[in-house]
Automatic annotation (TrEMBL):
Species of origin: Phytomonospora endophytica
Database matches in Pfam families: PAC2
InterPro entries with a match to the protein in the record: Proteasome_assmbl_chaperone_2 (IPR019151), PSMG2_sf (IPR038389), Rv2714-like (IPR008492)
Official protein name in the record: Carboxylate--amine ligase
Length: 288
């Protein structure tokens, strides 16, 4: 069930969505949503009713106080905002979600209902996974699309991954079945630098969105934050010869002519991540 006071009239809107949970290593994809919301002046338009979808012993509500020191309970849920980016002829709906604990089918139906009500004509899902990549190089962004023509237009390599999936995979399938154009983009984050946040990953996703949508995305402080993040990893490598040697080997692999990870490489990254999680199931790589 969606809870909205009234829906705005939007211009050929695109929905960009990311979800906290296993689909989002270091929180990079939801950080991208928050960055876009801040830079584009997004306004909240509603949220999903959390009661059917969340176990509140797992995703606990938060006690806060307002400006008058009045107590408030904030319930974990998925929020929608809308914005009109400068220089764009279309509007953008942003979804900062939380992977549900139950009733995933109904959850997807609620999102599709909103897409229909807002006349959304394209959906982009974001995710982040831990991978064997060099922090000194641009972080790769891979993608998947159910539609062959879209995959070819975006130069996406089909993924050979088979295994547990998260809400991003389930929602992408539901949207494709409903007949809406949908694509997902995944940023690959160094597994040896898995602490949150990872501004370089957020910058990589924002840059990919700017390229795909042809909408300017202001970087804000991401460039400076990325430099600080790289310096912190350099300090780590400087104090650990084994890590430094490993990073050097990744750099040498990166220097080979392979601009993007292919489908088999992405599948291996997923499988390696599952092994690092000790065989736990629950989603495509990310963090909880």
């Amino acid at each position: 069930m969606t809870e909205f006071d009234g829906l705005p009239t939007l211009r050929s809107p695109v929905l960009i969505a990311a979800f906290e949970g296993w689909n989002d290593a270091t929180g990079a994809s939801v950080e991208t949503i928050e960055h876009l919301a801040e830079q584009w002046g997004a306004k909240r338009i509603g949220h999903l009713d959390p009661d059917p979808y969340y176990d509140f012993q797992v995703n606990r509500p938060t006690l806060t106080r307002d400006g008058d020191d009045k107590r408030q309970i904030e319930w974990p849920t998925s929020h929608f905002t809308a914005c009109s980016p400068d220089g764009s002829e279309r509007d953008v709906v942003l979804l900062h979600g939380i992977e549900p604990n139950m009733r995933w089918g109904s959850f997807c139906e609620d999102i599709l209902e909103l897409c229909h009500s807002l006349e959304v004509d394209q959906v982009i899902l974001l995710g982040a996974l831990l991978s064997d990549v060099a922090y000194t190089r641009p972080l790769p962004v891979s993608g998947t699309a159910a539609d062959t023509a879209m995959a070819e237009r975006l130069k996406l390599t089909p993924s050979a991954y088979e295994g547990p999936t998260g809400i991003v995979g389930v929602l992408q399938e539901a949207i494709a079945v409903a007949g809406l154009p949908v694509v997902s983009f995944w940023v690959h984050i160094p597994h040896y630098a898995a602490a949150s946040p990872c501004p370089k990953a957020t910058l990589a996703l924002a840059s990919r969105l700017e390229e795909i949508l042809d909408i300017p995305v202001p970087t804000g402080g991401l460039v400076e934050d990325t430099a600080d993040w790289e310096n912190s990893i350099a300090e780590l490598a400087g104090s650990d010869a084994e890590i430094a040697e490993y990073i050097e080997s990744l750099e040498q692999q990166d220097d080979q002519p392979s601009p993007q990870p292919n489908g088999d490489e992405i599948a291996r990254d997923f499988e390696r991540y599952l092994r690092r999680r000790g065989g736990q199931s629950g989603g495509e790589p990310g963090t909880e």
